[in-house]
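Friendly challenge for the regulars: who can give me the structure tokens for this chain first? No prize, just bragging rights.
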Amino acid sequence: MAKASFRRETKGIDAFLKSAAVADVINEVAHDVAVDVEQSLPARPRRGVVVDDYTSKDRAVSSVTIRDGRAKAWQAKTGVLTKAAKSAGLEVRERVR
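First reply, four minutes later:
Bragging rights claimed.
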């Protein structure tokens, strides 16, 4: 039986994770989460639900933010962001610092 070999192409993986195609998919999912959040809020947020797109040092990123002082309470009480992320198929884990 032939022995298989594997060589990780770090530059290729890096380029892929920062590519426009990957950024577009991430952005689309983030907008789906934002719509779900807006529909789930108990009140209209003062400055909206915003999707911010950027590239970190190693990948394309999108974040969803409720721009309202009541957002922390909404998340703590109902888990509005967590539920929206999970319904979009995202894995939600506690951040370990």
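The mean pLDDT is 90. The CA atoms of residues 35 and 76 lie 19 Å apart. Your move, everyone else.
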